[in-house]
Design a protein that fits this description.
mainly alpha, rod-shaped, single chain, 113 residues
């Protein structure tokens, strides 16, 4: 009878150990597959400009008085009109200017023409 009790104890310990190892391996495999599905080569970009512009405008409207706010809005609209006329080429002109600035900031010189 003592032999059966020891055998049952050994069997219970062995089954517990095997189940614990299987749980760890299955959870590791599940985490790995979850990470692979998520990074299927997709990148999502969201434009935050409008959100922060609205936030800035609300902050300015709460901090500035009526006359200061009006003067600020007027100067902003003038600046926007000026920038709109300046960039007749649209965004392509801005991209080229940005690349030119980046090129110069890295220490490269423009070729002499």
């Amino acid at each position: 009878m003592d032999f059966l009790a020891e055998y049952a104890s050994f069997l219970a310990k062995t089954v517990t150990l095997v189940v614990a190892i299987l749980v760890v391996l299955i959870s590791f495999a599940a985490l790995r597959s979850k990470g692979r599905r998520k990074s299927a080569g997709q990148l999502q970009v969201s434009k935050l400009n409008d959100f922060y512009k609205g936030l800035r405008e609300r902050l300015e409207s709460s901090l500035l008085d009526k006359d200061q706010l009006k003067a600020l809005r007027k100067s902003e609209s003038k600046t926007e009109k000026k920038n709109g006329k300046k960039e007749a080429g649209g965004q392509a002109a801005g991209v080229c200017a940005g690349l030119r600035w980046r090129h110069q900031s890295l220490g490269h010189r423009e070729p002499a023409s």
